[in-house]
Design a protein that fits this description.
Elements lengths: L11 E5 L16 H8 L7 E4 L5 E3 L1 H9 L4 E7 L3 H14 L6 H14 L5 H8 L3 H11 L8 E3 L5 E3 L2 H14 L5 H8 L3 H12 L25 H6 L5 H6 L2 H4 L2 H10 L7 H10 L5 H25 L1
Parallel strand pairs: 2-4
Antiparallel strand pairs: 1-4, 2-3, 5-6
Helix pairs in contact: 1-2, 3-4, 4-5, 4-6, 5-6, 7-8, 7-9, 8-9
C-alpha cells in the first residue's frame, strides 16, 4: 500500500525510505512488533527525527518499520544537526518522553555511554540526559572510574565547568611555581590543569607569603580563581568608563584595519542587552538543549578570558 504524502511543514521534509540508515538506538532489544502493528493502523505517523549529515534515524525506528511494512515509500522527517554523540543523547531524551519508554537498564547503559562521550559532564547533567537520578549516575561513574583517570573538572547542567578538587589544583600550581618562578601564566595553567586566573592568584599569594590554597568565607572549600567573566584586576583598572564598545569603535587603530573591525564585530553582543531581543533569544533555546547552549557559551567565555589574559600579559 502506498500513500500520498501530505505537504511538508517548514520544519519537516519527505524523504525516500531507502535513503534512511538504521538508528544508533539506546534500546537493547529488537523492534517491538506489537508496537509496530499498532503504529501501522495509524493514518498519520509523527515525523521521524533524522540526522541531516548521515541520514541515520535518531528517533523513530518503530515508525520507520511500520511505514515499510505498510508499503510506504516516503516518510516525513525532522532534521537533527549534530555529531554522533549528540545524536545519541538526543535519541535517549526522545525515548524518555514518548512511545515505548526506555527501561531502567537501558537508561543506565545510556548513561554509561554518555559518560564515556562526555566525561566532563556532572552527575546531574548526565542524570537529566538519561532520565536517572544523580545518585544512580554517581554509582555508575564510581564503577567506571575505579581503574581509570579522574577529570579535574566537570560541566554542570548550567554549562559551567567546576573543579572536582580545586585545592589539589592550587597545590599543584604552587609546587610548579616554586620550581619555575618565572613561568608564564599560560605555562602554569597548562602544566597543572588550572585556569589562568587561578595561576595568577596562586602566584600573587605566594609572592605575598600567603597560603596559595584560598578559602572562602566561613571555611568553605577553596575557590578555583575568579569566575570566567570577571576581568583580571589590571584589565579592570585600564577599562574605559562608560560604553567600552563605543570607545573602541571610535579608535582609528581598530576602525581602519580589517583585524580591528573583526575584533569590534566579535565584541558587539549588544542584542543581549535589549530586553525584548534577549527574551526572544532565550525563548529560542530548546528545552532539551539548554545545557548544550550553556556549555557553548561557557566555552566562549573561557576563550575570551584567555584572550584577555594574553592582552594583559602583553601590556
Amino acid at each position: 500500500m502506498t500513500t500520498q504524502p501530505a505537504a511538508a511543514t517548514p520544519e519537516t521534509a519527505w524523504v525516500p525510505v531507502p535513503a534512511l540508515a538504521p538508528a544508533d538506538t539506546p534500546r537493547s532489544g529488537e523492534v517491538d512488533m506489537a508496537h509496530v502493528r499498532a503504529l501501522m493502523a495509524e493514518r498519520d505517523l509523527p515525523p521521524l527525527l533524522v540526522c541531516r549529515r548521515t541520514m541515520r534515524v535518531v528517533d523513530g525506528m518503530h515508525r520507520l518499520t511500520a511505514a515499510i511494512l505498510a508499503g510506504r515509500t516516503t516518510v516525513e522527517v525532522r532534521w537533527f544537526d549534530g555529531d554522533d554523540e549528540a545524536a545519541f543523547v538526543r535519541a535517549v531524551q526522545e525515548n524518555l518522553h514518548h512511545g515505548l519508554r526506555l527501561r531502567t537498564e537501558e537508561r543506565t547503559a545510556a548513561a554509561r555511554r554518555i559518560m564515556e562521550a562526555y566525561p566532563q559532564w556532572s552527575n546531574r547533567a548526565i542524570a537529566q540526559a538519561a532520565g536517572l537520578s544523580a545518585k544512580t549516575v554517581a554509582a555508575v561513574r564510581g564503577r567506571a572510574t575505579e581503574d581509570g583517570p579522574r577529570l579535574a573538572t566537570r560541566v554542570g547542567r548550567d554549562g559551567r565547568a567546576r573543579p572536582v578538587d580545586p585545592a589539589a589544583g592550587r597545590a599543584r600550581a604552587a609546587a610548579y611555581l616554586r620550581e619555575h618562578p618565572d613561568a608564564s601564566l599560560r605555562r602554569i595553567a597548562a602544566a597543572t590543569g588550572v585556569s589562568s586566573g587561578t595561576a595568577r592568584d596562586v602566584r600573587t599569594r605566594l609572592r605575598a607569603g600567603e597560603d596559595p590554597v584560598a578559602r572562602r568565607a566561613g571555611g568553605g572549600p577553596p575557590a578555583d580563581g575568579p569566575t570566567p567573566w570577571v576581568l583580571p584586576d589590571r584589565a579592570r583598572r585600564r577599562a574605559p568608563a562608560g560604553d567600552a564598545l563605543a570607545v573602541l569603535a571610535r579608535d582609528p587603530a581598530l576602525r581602519l584595519s580589517e583585524t580591528g573591525r573583526q575584533l569590534l564585530r566579535l565584541l558587539d553582543n549588544r542584542v543581549l542587552a535589549g530586553s525584548a531581543a534577549a527574551a526572544a533569544l532565550r525563548a529560542a533555546v530548546p528545552e532539551h538543549n539548554r545545557a548544550a547552549v550553556a556549555a557553548a557559551v561557557n566555552q566562549h567565555i573561557e576563550l575570551w578570558l584567555a584572550f584577555v589574559n594574553a592582552v594583559e600579559l602583553a601590556g
